[in-house]
Amino acid sequence: MALDFLPGNRLQLLENGAEFFPALLQAIDAAREEVRLETYIFECDEIGEAVLAALVRAVARGVRVYLLVDGFGAREFIVHRLHGVAAAGVEVEVYRPLRGPWFIPRRHRLRRLHRKLACCDGRVAFVGGINILSDFTRLPGRQTRQPRWDYAVRIEGPLVRSVQQAMRHLWGLVYWTNVKRRPPREPRLAGPGRIEPVGPHRAALVLRDNWRHRHDIERAYLHMLACAREEVWIACAYFFPGKRVRQALAACTARGVRVRLVLQGLSDHPILSQATRALYPWLLRHGVELYEYHATEMHAKVAVFDERYSTVGSSNIDPFSLFMAREANVWVDDRGFSEELRRRLEHHVAQGAVRLDAEGFARLPRWRKALSWVVLGWVRLIIGWAGYTRDMDG
């Protein structure tokens, strides 16, 4: 899948909430016509309340504000804050709201809104993996709070229109689905009809949905892996690839490409983490360098190819992201941007990651290895029940 890069953008790489939330709040406070925000998780903590306050301030200025949250990831917000925010004038919709207990098995319940997007006045947009919640979390056995490791991108230029159109389209679909009526007439797109070039970056927005773009993000990764000639960096919070991606990684190393894969060492989803570890021997045997990040929780979903191409977004390389959820990644063709992301990855790996090798894995207790394989089998059963075995096997 060749990517259709748009020229003339100005991109700013944002690391963690310390860089992302001030930029987001500033953009919301500067908006004069329209604010759109999509998120999987919306917590009612200090960050969530600050974002809600900014949205309400925008409404008070006469700005149209649209907030779309996922019915599972934003459960706390839906119960405690949705009605109050809507009463303040924010237009709120819920993607696939839960009807009945979550534990009732339904395949469609795994299809969530996992992308994290924002757009203000059709002039500034944000794409990334950072949810609306504080990224400081207290780790077990540690006295200090450490920020969760994650990334987003601030965008100005022609690509903003792609983000805005994607958000408007999904808003209309959810509105019609939730209330069984036609989407309301909205004002014309904010901003000028044509966005002038403002920077040097070539970039593309790649979406994943359950209709026309089911495999677009996976195909983008496969294309970049096939084109890589020197080096690949992938930092992925949740990594459980299908056969196509595994073969593409092996093909890279076979032709001399150095492939470095950074994964969670401290996982908030231990079941998937155990299943991933069952793949370690295969990856190591095929020459992939493996690093587990232990300094804090890792939520990043980024990659760099040959220090020229890179991606930042919401999509992991696992069945949930690649075959079930709605996702959004920005892909960048720019050496300066990609080198900056690579430098940040190298810094985090040097400061907080442990490199794994085949000998070290072989020394693990047998029960640890057996547990990984049992969990791997269980995860594959869940994937099969959900109907995605063919996607995983290629």
Distance between the termini: 16 Å
Which percent bin holds the helix content? 25-40%
CATH topology of the largest domain: Endonuclease, Chain A
Q: Going by CATH, what is the homologous superfamily of the largest domain? A: Endonuclease Chain A
Assign the structural class, choosing from mainly alpha, mainly beta, alpha/beta, alpha+beta, or little secondary structure: alpha+beta
Task: Please supply descriptive tags for the structure shown above.
2 domains; 15-stranded mixed sheet; 14 helices; 17 strands; alpha+beta; two-stranded antiparallel ribbon; 394 residues; globular; single chain; 25% strand; Endonuclease, Chain A
Give a structural overview.
This protein folds into 2 domains: 6-179, Endonuclease Chain A (Endonuclease, Chain A); 202-393, Endonuclease, Chain A (2-Layer Sandwich). Helix content is 40%, strand content 25%. It has helices spanning 16-30, 46-60, 75-80, 82-87, 159-179, 216-227, 243-254, 270-277, 280-285, 319-324, 335-352, 358-362, 366-386, 389-393; strands spanning 6-15, 34-39, 64-70, 91-95, 116-120, 124-128, 136-138, 145-147, 151-156, 201-208, 231-236, 258-264, 289-293, 301-305, 309-313, 327-333, 353-356. A hairpin with a 6-residue loop joins strand 7 (136-138) and strand 8. It is globular, with a radius of gyration of 21 Å. The two termini are 16 Å apart.
